Amino acid sequence: MSVFQIPVSTLKEIKxxxxxxxxxxxxxxxxxxxxxxxxxxxxxxxxxxxxxxxxSFNLALLGKQLWRIIQHPETLVAKVSKAKYYHDRDPLEAExxxxxxxxxxxxxxxxxxxxx
Length: 116
Prior knowledge:
Number of strands: 0
Number of helices: 6
Radius of gyration: 19 Å
């Protein structure tokens, strides 16, 4: 999740699997959902179970990688990214470009988050 932007459909399947496991549903057996999913996603300190919104978590991890590239331009990944995608600019001003890698697409998806 910290390297690629996971498709929303895949994240929904993961969320569904977590929910089915949590609620103990098997086959066609119906189980009672004692709490709404939104309430389970609250932090433990606020009475929830601390489950994460997977889409937001994915973007946060991608943003963290972009932040590392900005903060440590001497690293190999920063140098390679600069040579390929943003040679004459700041990483936050870079564009997705033509035929980018899946990693770069993910980092650019988190660009606005890092700017804020």
